[in-house]
Structures are given as C-alpha cells and as structure tokens.
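Good morning,

Attaching, inline, the backbone tokens for the sequence recovery test we're adding to the shared suite. The designed sequence is right after.
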C-alpha cells in the first residue's frame, strides 16, 4: 500500500493525465510539469561525439542476393577442394569468382557503403513528414529519431516474428547531445518526494503500445515540454529488453547513419513465470525456452526447486 507521500504523487500523475486527455490537451501549467522541470534538471547526461546508437526496422527488401552469393562461393570452394592447385592459383580463382558474384548480385555498392540492410537514407528518419504517425514522443507529422543503446535492444523494440528479416543501422552522434535521463539509472539522485512520480513517468515511456494514438498523449506532452526546456532528447527504459535503454532524439541533425547489418530472426527465447495458482511450489510450472536451461539450472536451489 502506498504511503501518504506516494499517494500524493500518484494522485498528481493521474490528475495530469486526466487534464490533458479530457480537459485541456495543450496546457502548459500544471504542478506535475514543475516537478518534471526539477527532476530532469538534476538528471542531465551528455552523449559525446562518436557515440554509437542503433535503429532497427523490419526489412522488406530483397535478400535473395545474399543466399545466391553464398551459394556461389560455397560451390566454388567445393570444386576447388577436388582439384589440386598451387595456392596462388587457388586464391586468384576465388577472387575471380568473388568479383563475378559481386557484379552478378549487385553487392559492390553494399560492400563499399557498409549498408547491408536498408541504405543510408532508409536507415534514418523518413524525409516526408506527412507519413510520420503518432509515436511515443512525437505527435503525427513531427519527426524525431528513435534509437537504442545496443543492437539487441533495437531488435527487441521492433518485435520481429520468426523468419523476419531486420535491418539494424548503426548511427553515430556527430555533435554532443544534451539528454534528459528518465531511466532507472537516475534513482540514486531522486529524492523520496519524487521517486514514485518518476516511476510512473518511466513506466509510461516504457510500456508496450499497440499504436493506439491516445495512449501516447501523456508521453508526447512531456516530451514537448522537455524539448522546450532546451533538451535535445530523452533516455528511457526498454520494456522489451530488460537492461536496454532507448533514446528519442529531438535534434536528430546531430546524428547520422553510418552502416547497417541485415539479420534473420531464427528463434525467440521466452521466459514465463507462473504466478497462479497460488499455493505450493509444486503447483507452479514456469515456462521457458530450452536454450535458457543452463541459465535456469544455475538459479536452482540446493533442493532442486527453481528459485522464485
């Protein structure tokens, strides 16, 4: 049960959401906003030049060229194994086949540019603002850059299905960015009067969403407010990848796409904890992917039961 101070923070958050959803969508005066100003002012991080960030997109382009290229090289290697050749001739032959394959399957530009998934332009923000839909931080038609701290986080955020192809672009910060940190990393700086409030805000930024525009109203309002305070982006927790962190960059001109890699999703490793029925441990059976077995075995208690 929340104590009096926590209840006050919860009530403040609920009142703010009620006001901007049902009463005054674009209000700039609310006690919560004053609290947010104080919180983010004490939690500023700077992303220096040459910081790498990652943006994933489900890939709908052609991928046949990769399989064909690999098949060509594999066939040539198998042929070369059956014929005894001087080493130099062998390497020359591989180089010839390699160059022929590059020409045949149009790989030269990919090798040269480093973009194996989407190209440099497609790996960044869409140029046409009219196609931008409501996002976690942006209202429709306003362009922000959504990126992750690592490739695994970016991959999880696009929720790919089995056998989907995913292009993960590496982006580089080309000029230092000043970011408001709304992640769990800030907790040691948050006083008790704001801790519950920060938890509620972090949860709002991180919770999964099925692209329902009204569910984004609170985070869009806070993002615009934080941007108007002079911040160039917000860092927030990923709900889809435990230790991952996401960024929304307002001043995206300080970033550029430098390469992309292409992935195929071959597996999804789930881990589901049984929370009901309530009772003896023997009544519960957690579900997890077999590849997690070594990890789960390490967590078992001496009596053989899984630690909860």
């Amino acid at each position: 049960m929340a104590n009096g101070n926590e209840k006050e923070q919860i009530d403040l958050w609920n009142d703010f959401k009620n006001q901007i959803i049902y009463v005054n969508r674009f209000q700039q005066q609310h006690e919560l906003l004053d609290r947010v100003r104080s919180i983010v002012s004490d939690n500023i991080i700077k992303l220096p030049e040459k910081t790498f960030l990652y943006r994933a997109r489900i890939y709908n382009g052609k991928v046949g060229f990769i399989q064909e290229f690999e098949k060509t090289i594999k066939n040539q290697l198998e042929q070369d194994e059956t014929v005894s050749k001087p080493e130099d001739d062998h390497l020359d032959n591989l180089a010839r086949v390699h160059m022929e394959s590059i020409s045949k399957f149009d790989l030269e530009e990919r090798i040269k540019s480093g973009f194996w998934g989407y190209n440099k332009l497609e790996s960044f923000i869409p140029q046409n603002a009219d196609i931008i839909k409501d996002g976690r931080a942006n209202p429709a038609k306003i362009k922000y850059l959504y990126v992750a701290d690592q490739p695994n986080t970016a991959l999880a955020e696009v929720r790919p299905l089995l056998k989907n192809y995913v292009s993960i672009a590496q982006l580089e910060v080309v000029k230092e960015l000043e970011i408001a940190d709304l992640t769990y990393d800030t907790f040691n700086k948050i006083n008790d009067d704001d801790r519950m409030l920060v938890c509620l805000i972090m949860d709002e930024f991180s919770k999964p969403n099925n692209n329902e525009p009204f569910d984004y109203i609170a985070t869009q309002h806070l993002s615009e407010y934080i941007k108007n305070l002079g911040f160039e982006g917000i860092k927030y927790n990923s709900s889809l990848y435990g230790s991952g962190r996401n960024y929304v960059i307002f001043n995206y001109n300080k970033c550029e796409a430098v390469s992309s890699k292409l992935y195929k999703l071959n597996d999804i490793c789930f881990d589901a904890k049984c929370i009901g029925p309530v009772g003896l441990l023997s009544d519960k059976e957690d579900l997890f992917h077999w590849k997690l077995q070594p990890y789960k075995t390490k967590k078992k208690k001496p009596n053989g039961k899984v630690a909860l």
